Structures are given as structure tokens and as C-alpha cells.
Amino acid sequence: MKRFLLSLSILTILKTFSSCVQKTYDRKVRFLVDVNQMAPIKSCGLRVSNNPLSWDQDLEMKPIVKDSLYSVAVTFNTGYLGCEVKFVVNGQFELQNQDNRRFAFDIEKDTTFYSAVFDRQNP
User: Fold this and answer.
1) Number of C-alpha atoms within 13 angstroms, CB side, residue 87?
2) Which of 26, 34, 50, 98 has its Cα between 20 and 30 A from that of 72?
């Protein structure tokens, strides 16, 4: 009987700690990419590792300066501190056979600003 109660106690403790859910926050990010060397631009998009986006489909970016500078804003609801991204121009992924871009959300400000030059790693 003691063994049964001990086992039941251990299972209860394990279940309590394993059912914790990570708190999530809204994280706004403004992405900006310079695609000047790729003109003419037919499409410019973004692929991201975190929801609501994915690696399977581009999020369309809008031109600020046609064939030069594109931007998009995204709000992530996440518990992660950052995410991974790649830009896609005219159906071509940047940084082929290289690591994804990684960045951290700016938790001190309302919006994180992420700027990049297409197909060049940030220093």
C-alpha cells in the first residue's frame, strides 16, 4: 500500500510540472530588406520559423522604393525570445547553403526593427 501511495504521489507531481504552459507575448517586428542588386523585382517575400508564418509560404513584402527597398510588419504571439528568417526575391531564397538569419525580439520597445541586405549576412 505504501508503495502504491508513493507511486501515486510521484505521478501527481510529475503531471503537475509537465503541464506547465509557457507564457506568450505579442512581439511586433518591422522587416526591411534592401534588394537593390536584384532588380527588376517581380516578388519579394519573407519566410520565418515562428507562427503565424512558416518556411512553406512567402509573406509578401511591399515596396517602399520599387526595385530597391521592401518592408512588412508582423506581430508574433510567442514565448520565444527571437526567431529565424530568410528573404525570398523572385522565388529565390537568399543565403543558399548558409545559416538562417537569427535575431532577438526587442523586449524594451513596442516594435523590433530588423534591416538586412538581400543575400548578405548582417555583421
Assistant:
1) 26
2) 98
Ranges of each domain in the chain: 22-117
Q: What are phi and psi of 73, to 5 degrees?
A: -110, 140
**DSSP assignments along the chain, one per residue:** -HHHHHHHHHHHHHHHHHT-----EEEEEEEEEE-GGGPSPS-EEEEESSTT--SSSPEEPEEEETTTEEEEEEEEEESSSEEEEEEEETTEESSTTSPPEEEE--TTSSEEEEEEETTB---
User: Domain 22-117 adopts which CATH fold?
Assistant: Immunoglobulin-like (2.60.40)
